[in-house]
Every structure is written in C-alpha cells, then in structure tokens.
Amino acid sequence: MPTNVNPTVRRRRLGQELRRLREIKGMTAEEVAERLLVSQSKISRLENGRRSISQRDVRDLCGVYEVEDHRVVDSLMQMAKDSRQQGWWHAFGDIPYSVYIGLETDAESLRVYEPQVVPGLLQTRSYAEAVISGALPEAPPSDIEKRVNVRARRQDRVNSTEQPLRLWAVIDESALRRLVGGNQVMIEQLEHLIEQSHLPHVTVQVLPFEMGAHPGINGQYAILEFPDAADSSVVYIEGVTSDLYLEKANDVQRYSVMYEHLRAQALNVEQTREFISDIAKSYTR
Predict the structure, then answer these.
(1) What is the spatial distance between Cα 130 and Cα 209, in angstroms, rounded to a whole number?
(2) At CA 202, angle to CA 199 and CA 208, rounded to 5?
(3) What is the pLDDT of residue 7?
(4) Measured between alpha carbons, how far is 49 from 57 in angstroms, rounded to an integer?
(5) Which class for 142: exposed (0-12), middle (13-18), buried (19 or more C-beta within 10 A)?
(6) In whole angstroms, what is the distance from residue 148 CA to residue 248 CA?
(7) Which neighbouring-strand residues pair with 206?
(8) From edge to edge, which strands make up the β-sheet containing 202-207?
(9) What is the reported pLDDT for 1?
(10) pLDDT average per 10 residues of sequence, the chain (285 residues)
(11) How far apart are CA 150 and CA 242, in angstroms?
(12) CA 220 to CA 192: how far, in whole Å?
C-alpha cells in the first residue's frame, strides 16, 4: 500500500476487506460479534472504518473467518498497523470531525451543497472565525482558534499547485446574504469567493431564491470521490452531535442525481460571479 495514503483511508480499505471476508464466510456481523464476545456495533464500526483497528482485532477476525493464507493475514495485519499512524490533523488535538478530514484529505473531488454559509474550503479566516464563534457560542477562544487553524490547513488542498482537490460548490443565496462578521468581512469573503472561482479546479454556482423549492431543500451535504477505484464514494451529512456517512451505492447515486438537479437549477459560472459581485456591493451601502 502506498505510504502516502492517510490512516483514515487505510482503515476504510481494511474494513472493506474484512467485510468481504465475512461475507465470503456467510456470516452476519451479529454472529461474528457473538463468536468474539464483542458488540455488533464494534464489528460494524471496524468494517466501515470509523473505529481504529488493532492487529489483535485483525488476528481474531481472520481466525473466525478461517483465513489460512498467512500472506493475506500478514498483509491485513500490516494494514492495521499502518492505519494507527496519525494524520496531520492529530497535531491540533481532538477534532470531532476528524474522520471527515481524513476522507477529504485523500479525496480527488468534492461536490458540496451549502444552504447557510460559504463552504469551509472557500472561507476567509475572518469569516471562518465569525461562523465558528456563532455556531459554538460557549466554546473558549482557544477552541475557536484551533478550528479556524484546522479549516485553514484543509484549504491547502484547494490552493495546492500539485494534485489540487477538484471542488464543485453549489451555494444557496441565503448563505451570501447572511451577515456574518459585519459588512467588511462579508465584502472580503464574497470577493474571495469570486477569486477562488477562477481557479481551474474550482466551480462555484449560486442557487438563487427565485428557483423556489429544489432537491437540496433538506440541507447541506457533500459527496467525496477518490482516485483509487477500491475506495467507494461517500456522502457526508454534518450533524450537531454526530455526522452521517453514506457509502451504499444506491445512497450515493441518489445524492448524485440530486446534485445534478441542483447544478442544473443554479446560475452558471459567469452569472454566479456577477450575482456575487452585486451582493458584495450591497454591503458597501
């Protein structure tokens, strides 16, 4: 396995392989849990990559699945060891959405719909500080600063000159008209959004109010796609206390179709830049 693959993706690939071995054996997660005297949720979390996998976990599971090829077992054990390495985000301490950051770091493309705020990867520092402070009114300044720094570090994927993240953002008009941090902060943010939209790997479209009801009316979501065919696409839905990750092909397809409708209903790239520019002017009055 390439050494540049981050631990989140390693866990995910290992989990997929363990699920495959279980299915070949014809066992349910509940049956495996009973054999190992652990909870069914542990088996599920190991398989979906949401939980750190130890070499002992791999050894025990390979025993249950009667994997006799030592080369396979050794390979899985090495994957488990590699998956316990720390990604860059661990240097910032406990980050509640670290699983998402790991996926985003390794993604080849990201399609995001944002109804309330400018997408995090396209935020200025001042705007990010105001958004995070508003969303977490009881958080101490140190936590706010840490989250802002993590967000700035994530933006390296967008601004990279080597293998940048392919980003497509559909933003609801309400996100542009919501006064966050004051007029000057909004002017700088909207100008930055226009500037970023000129990057060859970034596409920004605005969904104006006049479009009425649309497929994204139920809220924010993102679709992550990866360069390796072995890594299935993921739909990410952010929550207040927990996040949702959808990986089943039918779920990803459904959200992808929704996104195509959003792109079709939104203003095109040039119209979007003019629209954002007009809103920015409104903050100078």
Answers:
(1) 24
(2) 120
(3) 65
(4) 13
(5) exposed
(6) 32
(7) 171
(8) 202-207, 166-172, 109-114, 221-225, 234-237, 244-246
(9) 36
(10) 56 83 90 90 82 85 89 85 72 78 90 97 97 94 94 94 94 97 97 97 97 90 87 86 84 95 96 98 89
(11) 19
(12) 21
User: In the structure encoding, which two tokens stand for residue 148, read together?
Assistant: 């802002």
103 CB neighbour count, 10 Å cutoff: 23
Q: DSSP of 37-79, one letter per residue?
A: TS-HHHHHHHHTT-S---HHHHHHHHHHTT---HHHHHHHHHH
- The pLDDT score that the predictor gives to residue 3 is 39
142: tokens are 């140190």
Strand, helix or coil for residue 169: strand
Q: Residue 223 is which amino acid?
A: I
Look at the alpha carbons of 84, 163, 146, 115 in this order and tell me if their dihedral is positive or negative: negative
The one-character DSSP state at 248 is S
Helix/strand number for the chain, H first, E second: 13, 6
Specify which residues 169 forms β-bridges with.
112, 204
